[in-house]
## 1
Amino acid sequence: MPLFTDAPVSNIPDLSAYDSQVIDVASTEGIDLTRKLAAAQDDLAVELSVLLANLKLADQPLWLTPSPNLANVVVTKPLRLWHIYLSLEMVYRDAYNSELNDRYAGKRDQFHQLAECAREKLIQSGIGLVAEPVAEAATPQLITIPGALPDGSYFVTMAWVNAAGEEGASAVPAAITTSGSSLQVQPPAAPEKATGWNVYIGSELDAMVLQNQSPIDVGTVWQQLTPLATAGHRPGTGQNPTYLKPLPRVIQRG
């Protein structure tokens, strides 16, 4: 699962999956869906920060000392649903304010209630937290080097690993074409908590497979000089929560 601070919690296709009319409404009313997604995430960040600040230190395991912050938060299903419904509520709020159309008001109120339900589910089930958060990797740089990989196009992604062996979310893949050569993968600067990284390569986007047998040291490049592994671990979406913490009900949203 990705971290809350990795990237937008949900995207435009997610909104469309829960409301098939939202793209048409946004186009008609001149609403920027990307900005609404960002605004909803900002709202969630404020609420989650207050909720986390109110967690009692005595109720936390030792590895979460001091109190966790947004960097420790994992995007669980209730949190993703909260973001989707809140984003849709904001869209239809703007649409109603523009046209004073009762149909938009009904949608606004519907998604407001759904957002409240998702928030309540998050409070009941607990917020997902990780002890050693590993940020989503940025896309690595690829170059060709002398070697004898089969000629063709290759897709490459990477993920950072922490000291516990937990892997963060994989990077947006890069692509490279070789001809009488091999390839080298240069990772970006390592984030805090990263102690190594994994590399995934494949001849197709959905066929990328882990190539290293153990995490590669931070600051070390990877040279793919041998034939690709074609079976094994695939790129992941991030860390699973190591702890679920029920949240105090300290914010009443109107």
Note: Strands lie at 127-129, 141-146, 152-161, 174-178, 181-186, 196-202, 209-210, 216-217, 222-224, 243-245.
## 2
Amino acid sequence: MVKEYARLARPYFVLLAIVTLGRWLIGTAFHVPYDKGTWYMSIVMLTMFASIFSTAFARRWLGYRLMPAAGFAMFMALVSQLVILLSTLISYGLDIPSYFRDPMALARQTEAMGFGAAMVARVGGLVVNTIVNGILGAVGWALGGLLPVRER
């Protein structure tokens, strides 16, 4: 099933790469403060919308049942959260002041966070966002019933 999810998620992976690169550039190359620039490129919002839309279409046109659809949404969220975790690791490891290590992104606070606390926050985000996207995948699946039936 994971192989099928990965194949189906290819367009999403392209968007994820674009948004991730955009977040890196906005925060580092263009020096836009986090509170002003984060709203333009959000991996979490991209994943949430992808979970809803992808599972709606997967239901209607690919015949996905509820659990595989929710699993697909969770797969996309897991990959996204691993990208965020890896980006945070790189930011700390190379001492790059990116959006991925901004304290507002990590814990909604203004004080800088140490590496260990940042990784704990990111692992928490991985768990919570994967579950939330599973729920959104189920919502998308339900909405997929409103799409027209695919004619063959």
Note: The helical segments are 2-8, 10-29, 34-37, 43-62, 66-93, 103-107, 115-144.
## 3
Amino acid sequence: MKTTTIIVASTLALCAYAPLTARAQTETDVSERSPEAAPAATTEAAPLPAIVPATPGAPVVDVIPAPLPEAKGPAVPTEPTGPSTAAAERRYTFWGAEPGRPADESSFALSPTVPIRFASYTWLDTGYMKQQNQQVGSYDKDVNYAQGRFVLGVSYRRDMGPLFAEARAQFVAFDNEFTKSQYEPHTQDAFVRVGGRLWDVQVGRFLAWEPYYRGNGIDRYTAEENGALGGPSMYRLDYALGYKDEAGQGAFHLYPVDWMAFELGAVYGQESSQNNLGVRPVLALRRFGFLLIGGWEYVKQRPQDSSNKVKQNENGFAGRLAYTFAGTTLGVNVSHVNVDAWQIDGEVNGTQTFDKTSMGGYVESEFHNNVVGAGYHYTTSDNKKGESNAHHQSFLSYGYRLPVPGLTISGILGFARAAIEDADAKSSWENDVTSFRVRVRYDMQ
């Protein structure tokens, strides 16, 4: 009840603040704050293409993440804009896509007859991984795999003086369409956003900002992300991150000054016959090549059936400090979460009640048409049963932008080791996985 009160009070406060902010931005003389007056964009190097695109993106252009880091410095508008859109683009130029997502999102095609933007990309992975499992009864595995994805995004944007409104949807086709053990259509982004240069409100399906960045070699739904068998997953402030199957999302964004941005995210709705309710504030500061971003989340899941006592609370934080100089970015991350879970009979679930900590770092360097990267992350998890599990995840990556515009090729070598305990069997063991994949990606230009 206390959490619900906090969320409702925060929402009412934001609703009251938004009109005042809109009035303030209307009175601002945009001509006195030209793009040249803003600090040069010093976004960190973008990750190589991820299976799920990076973020909802900026409010000016439709999105698909670029395969390699964006060029530093002010972006060049691709079409004539009035004062209102120029102001929004200025914010986009400084922050890149979003402060929590370093990937650039600028490739799109504009329909000549209606104000609809199209964005599309496709990628194909060809990979191999070798699993070495020491647990009694488990076997080593050699796995060949190939997978791919085609994404088509459509957005409509309308500018009304200092304000704008935007709707976006992204549709997905898989190279291997037999996904989640059934044939079905898929979407990624599907949201509506309204706001102005200083603020916006977003509702629907999207990814929130990510304080914990893994580096350009650990992409979504890959062997590098999964790591070694049985290892605790990396915590990235991701219980309310987004792209939920059923529950909806909301976010309020505030850009009070060029070097500061704030997101208040939330989840609300149902999932797996449980009600979800959560809040997720994130603050980002960027100045003189430094990026400091941190956030906190609290999510609770409650049963819809009064006879069911299964419930869970997640309370965690995450942060990142990164520095970019001469095309090279160094970054460190830290995160911690406490999860409390109860079984159907109301008793504490010892396995699912745990404390988890992740920490790690990465380096990315861009030169000419190349980008190289490396990273290491360490996750520990201690549950109520007394089991202590650990997970080491590391990678090396290399990407090259081919002479064909929009076409890139990258290679990622990964290694992970999980140290696992079983309190019931009074045993412990280690599992290893070594993986390598080549990704070919084409972005619509």
Note: DSSP finds three helices and 17 strands in the chain.
